[in-house]
Amino acid sequence: MIRFLKSLILLPLAVLLIVAAVANRHDATLSLDPFSDGQPALAVTAPLFWFLFAAVAVGVLIGGTAAWAKQGKWRREARVKRREASHWHEEADRLKAVSDATSAPALGAPQHRDAA
Transmembrane helix among the record's keywords (predicted)? Predict the structure, then answer.
């Protein structure tokens, strides 16, 4: 259900982004210098759709990084639990080997059968 809802939202958004990219192929100037109107020191001229795609990419990177950072607690807990499980599996294997060694009959020893 969640996958359907994501598709329901993301598909029209992708179509709008593509339509905006096709409609805005003319050059635009992005000025990163807030103090100079005429000749900005930091300015980039490119088709407008490049700026749109760059904004989406930056948003995806920031969102992905934030989600990854927020899940750090759960990854750390999973590592601890994985180590504990490995420790207890080794302990169980060791105890099973000890149990098998003590309960196995000695080689060459006669085995008694009860006659019924």
Answer: yes
Element (H, E) at 84: helix 72-103
Domain that holds residue 60: 2-97
28 near 50, Cβ under 8 Å? no
Tell me if 24 sits within 8 A of 53, measured CB to CB. Answer: no
- Residue 76's contacts (CB-CB under 8 Å, 6 or more residues apart) are none
User: Of the candidates 51, 86, 63, which has an alpha carbon nearest to the alpha carbon of residue 10?
Assistant: 63
Question: What's this model's pTM, rounded to 2 decimal places?
Answer: 0.57
114 lies in a domain?
A: no
Taking 80 as the threshold, does the pLDDT of residue 16 lie above it?
yes
111 in any annotated domain? no
Distance, in Å, from the CA atom of 44 to the CA atom of 32, rounded to the nearest integer, reads 8
- Of 3-12, 53-62, 85-94, where does mean pLDDT reach its minimum? 3-12
Q: Which of 22, 78, 31, 72 is nearest to 52 (CA)?
A: 22
**Number of domains making up the chain:** 1
